[in-house]
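Input sequence (570 aa), recorded before submission:
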Amino acid sequence: MFLFLMLLWGQLPYAQEMQIYKEPIPQEKGEFVYLKNRRDVLTYLIAVDTLSEEVYFKDTSGLGYIRTGRTFPDFPEISKVPVRANSALVRIEQKTGIKYHPPYWTYEEVLDYIYRYKQRTELQLLINTLSIGFLTFLLLFFIFYSFVARQKLYYLYVVYIFMGWLFCLSMPNELPLPAKQFLTAAGIDQDIDETALAWMFIFYIAFSDELLGISIQSKSLKRIFQVCYVGLGLYGFFQLVIGIWHIHVPFLHEIYLGFRLLFLPLYVFILALVIFKVNSPLKTYLLVANGFMLLGALVSVVINYSDVYLYWGENRLIHATFLQLGILAETACFAFALGYHNTLIRKQRDEKERQQFAMERRVNKLTLQAIETQMNPHFLFNGINAVRDLMMKNEKEAAKDYLNTLALLLRSSLMNSRKEEVSLEEELEYVKLYLTIEKLRLGSEFHFEIKCDEELDTGTLLLPSQLLHPIVENAVKHGLRWKEGEKWVKISIFRDGVECWKISIKDNGIGRTKSEELKKADPLKSTGLGLPLVQEKLKLYYNLQGKEVEFEVLDQEGTEVLFTFWTWKR
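Predicted structure, token format:
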């Protein structure tokens, strides 16, 4: 009859999951008695007159099932039951495998319970709230970070934190009542705490393996990890099944302790293998994190096995609190390890970029030297032709002076070609030697002029070595070659504002258009290497030094080549 009444009441979901107790209500407590039920277990109460079988009171207790108008709304486990003569109380509660005899209290005894309960759970409430809040922050932060990083390491860490967070929520802890009610209504209760713990260790092992590369360094540890994955997965699934369907399993408490007593020594053995077989700059973080976790687990097992509470003053701490603190410290250490991991990755990337830059610089330098080796034979080819022409004209003294000056020029060319940069003074001296040689060859109809602003310090201004020579040589060989009458080359160095200085090389030759036409008619007279080599040299100079030099060719009466050097890196 009572079961039928409950079904009509509409609050009994599955009769096969419930257990029923009937007991008399003590008369000596007064007009009302206060029944202290289980806080986390759904319980239905029916007070019945045993003579008339009249149901004169009904109530529901347990988290998530609070009715309005309770005398103590923060304590949903306490029910206020009216007392009648010949009355009995029927309790219908969820099966847990443990028979519980709730105490009947007077109002004063309830107040004493509430006072003592709050006094002994304040520290527990503080630890749980801060711990779960910290884990929630870590979980949310790394969820968003994993979407950005898109790395397996962060995905594993997120799932690992989630399982730890789920375990801390499901343990029999103290939380503000609205939070506890919400968790109970969502099904996050003690039925899944062992599953969350077992699967948390699965992802902890996988995360540690990915972080330190353990399986890569040790095949034996890889095999042990595979065994752990299977064992922890099956244990977690077993606990999940019996928790969801409330299956009664004999010796469940012994299974609970046996799992810990089996896994903890294996846990220590794995740590020992990691110490001796794994090399990683992050190993210290792993060992410190595991030290916290191991300490919390050991204290939790000892307290739970002893079936006692640990007190800090008046505050009572349950066994799972220490495991929770171990998880909290471990996740914090792993968060620091990930930060250091990112620092190492950045250092490796920076070092790789530095080596790549050094390699590119070396390649550019070798390329620049190769360009110089192209310029020198090009110049020698023209110089030998000039000596040959003088000898054929029987101008021996001119040829002798030409060879002496050519020797000085070649010596200067050899020295400067080994440098990335030379001073403007050295470059102008080199060009002056070259033009002197050309004047000896061309005679009085050719002259040159080099002018430099007095405010410019030619000894400190730098430019790529042998930059001006191919331009001057082009002016003489191509611009002035077919020129009739007076021939000249003028070089001007001047400042253009405060940000740059310029070099202008002008000639009064026939110009580029006419010169190109004549070269096409007689292609053996020129190799045409000068301007392309200068352009390539300036490009490599920018790659090496980061200094941009503007280069332009202007067609006027003859040709002008203008270089612009900036006083700062552009």
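Checked by second reader. The chain is about 60% helix and 15% strand.
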